[in-house]
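Q: How would the structure tokens look for this protein?
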Amino acid sequence: MQAMTHLRHTDAGSALDVEAVRRDFPILKKKVRGKPLVYLDNAATTQKPQQMLDALTRFYVDTCANIHRGLHQLSEHATREYEEAREKVRRFLNAPEAREIIFVRGATEAVNLVAHSWGRGTLQPGDEVLITGMEHHANIVPWQVLCQEKGAKLRVAPISDAGELLLEEFEKRLGPRTRLVAVAHVSNALGTVNPVRRIVEMAHRQKTPVFVDGAQAAPHTRIDVQALDCDFYAFSGHKLYGPTGVGVLYGKAGLLERMPPYQCGGDMIRSVTFEETIFNTIPYKFEAGTPNIAGAIGLGAAIDYVEGIGLERIAAHEHDLLAYATRRLAEIPGLRIIGTAPEKAAVISFVLDGIHAHDIGTILDREGIAVRAGHHCAQPVMARFGVPATTRASFAFYNTRQEVDALVAGIHKVQEVFR
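A: Here is the predicted structure in token form.
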């Protein structure tokens, strides 16, 4: 805990001690193909601090038991830790009540939960769901399938050449039949930060609820669902330095109470006869079966870690990395950055003249540099910019300017191979 304790007692306005942070991440000591790992694929998943790994180990070694229904000490202890994790998430999002926090497998399941539970009971033929042109597939396909099933229409608000949402065009598409707006807080493919509060205000003027995909926002900035006034907010634990297989859906209590269960069995049931089943209250109504207990506890530990460092300090460091990397990459002949919105998170997607993204990713890997190459589960974004794929470098607070320099040197090597 030494690095985290030191950072907690550092002035909130001071610079991040990156070397202290890096010591908390065991994998960053790893070598890839004999070279130091430069991990720049954080938008796909982040690496894990020792403090979070210790929390997982403690659960399985000291506390492993099922929750809520057991009367023995281990079960009571596991239940307490699980519900404490829910309260940590509530504080992290500034949700009004812990019962508005539902543990799911990830942001993808959160989208599907709302599409199935809210959408199937709400949408009618001729209704509309409005999304943007920068969405991840997980925030397109569930709504697309829902619309096809219900005879509704999926509408798409366009984006500019810089990758910004065209707000006037978005507002034009908000109509009397719009039943839901679903929007990414931050684009995974472009890094664009959407003006979610303004979007919510526009939608709420028409009494239209808003679902926000926060998978790319939660690791980078402070989230306040009350200030945003969104109706649903989702994020994944594994992008927030937590375990895989756990995520969060926040929903306003009034909406969640009216929604039917998404899955059935286990603790989402209050009583059962052959004639009738009475469902549990929220959030348990949406947590069927044995949940990912260890994952929730690990996510709580990851939130403790991130908040111990300070989200403002994290954001400042990542903004510096983004600005530095943007300058350095812009100096490379033949390189074009895809997504140049003024408001961006620490994501840079780019193309190189005459070289496919997969070749770039493969050659960079030989240098120990991990980036993402492909369509990033955002094929409509690739189509919008007329490219088959991009190479994406995405940064976390444990990354350094020296690693940006290594990326730049690696790209020059890529160009030498294809010269």
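The CA atoms of residues 234 and 249 lie 5 Å apart.

Residues 1-12 have pLDDT under 50 and may be disordered.

Upvote if useful.
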